[in-house]
Description:
Blueprint: E1 17-22, E2 27-32, E3 39-46
Antiparallel strand pairs: 1-2, 2-3
The structure holds zinc ion.
Amino acid sequence: MKEFRVCPTCGYGRGFHVSFSKGDPGFSILFICPECGSAFDLSIAEDRLQDIRPENRGRFRSYP
Ligand SMILES: [Zn+2]
């Protein structure tokens, strides 16, 4: 696969939203189609994110 851009479910071709799901350790990265809502787990994990504290929900944060 050269590029994962087109939704296999509905054919939407402008890319995906990203969501993070708590795993062990770190977070799994999920790709969500903005057109139909299908979610795809490509087994990509991120271990640099920290748990998001309630006071910081909804804000953008940067991590070293
Ligand atoms: Zn779709």
